[in-house]
């Protein structure tokens, strides 16, 4: 669960207090310059977190050659755990012993959370509520989370994750129960009777295995109930306006990104196959999904980032609640508020990012808040981008002219606790411009 979105104006608040840069862990000379062979790894500051939780995220091990690049990569991987406000790493020697020193400062783990945000990143669709998070049950990085949200698409959820239920075999386990009332997304259906609500009840459990530092795979078994406030053919497959069905998902994930919320290097690939409906259910179709992202560091603090995403179905009829869209979670900049609907979806993005202010940690003094909340991480990037995408139904003819594309530029802010805020200006194919304010990363 990410922290509530914060506006870029938070930077103005920083200037009102005395701010001292927290010491960065790596002084950049030549990133691939050898530092030496590691004899041992020393971890300090983890009063609750088990050592293995940190070590499992690191590529560097005793007996390996350390470089500035490898140390900085591991530092960001440890940040990705979401357990620490600060991570510093040093390579040093004591006599004939060469060690890698990892110093962390832990976040609070029992956290009552005020929840506030914008559904689909749209400031017109406000949701709010409260939640409770135990971010590190038993010091094992286990997550227990409960939440209640009101406003746009209200929801109630309870979830648990153990990312390493079996250390020897690297198995993980998760489960969740949820209810949500979702405002209809389909403009085609809304044109028939006006807006209507969908009620989603879901129970699911996932069991999986971590094969390496970067690779995981798992299987999810779940049961879902979807009902609509006003039945029309296609909104549900059962004519009583309610679909009850079991489903199963096979998924594979490869993730070598250095920083999950705003990567500068690495590769991400997510593949899944979900079978909806078994035995005699009216629901009986399969959805395939893929998401590929590549981040390539370039000279002069530049990063070239690319993404390709797709989703397709086969089998029986697909109800409205399982359609895919551009304009909600996925967006085409230039057509940011335009809804494109279908059974299948294909899209892509390319960004050229310049790190105006590379992510760095600062210590803020003068604020009447606990010390744990005075360590903030910021970054600012200038970005040029282009997006393209198409959504279609089975039987439609898809060609190059079917795609909608946009391009533009903007400023991305990496704010404390992994929040990304974007201010962009985009043009569509007709060269019409639009200002974009979004409280999520582009990808």
Provide a descriptive summary of the structure in words.
7% of the residues lie in helices and 56% in strands. It is built from four helices and 24 strands. It has helices at 10-14, 51-55, 68-79, 187-193; strands at residues 19-21, 34-37, 40-44, 65-67, 84-94, 97-106, 110-118, 126-137, 142-151, 155-166, 171-183, 197-210, 215-228, 242-255, 266-276, 285-298, 302-315, 324-326, 340-342, 344-364, 375-392, 404-415, 419-428, 433-438. The model is unreliable at 1-29 (pLDDT under 50). The chain starts with 9 loop residues before the first helix and ends in a 5-residue tail after the last strand. The strands form four sheets. It has a 17-stranded antiparallel β-sheet that branches. The protein has a three-stranded mixed β-sheet with strand order 3-6-5, covered by helices on one side. The radius of gyration is 23 Å and the shape is globular. Strand 8 (126-137) and strand 9 (142-151) form a beta hairpin. The chain is mainly beta and 443 residues long. Among the domains are: 1-24 and 353-443, no CATH class; 31-106, membrane protein fhac (Ubiquitin-like (UB roll)), CATH 3.10.20.
Give descriptors for this structure.
443 residues; mainly beta; Ubiquitin-like (UB roll); 17-stranded antiparallel sheet; 3-stranded mixed sheet; 4 helices; 24 strands
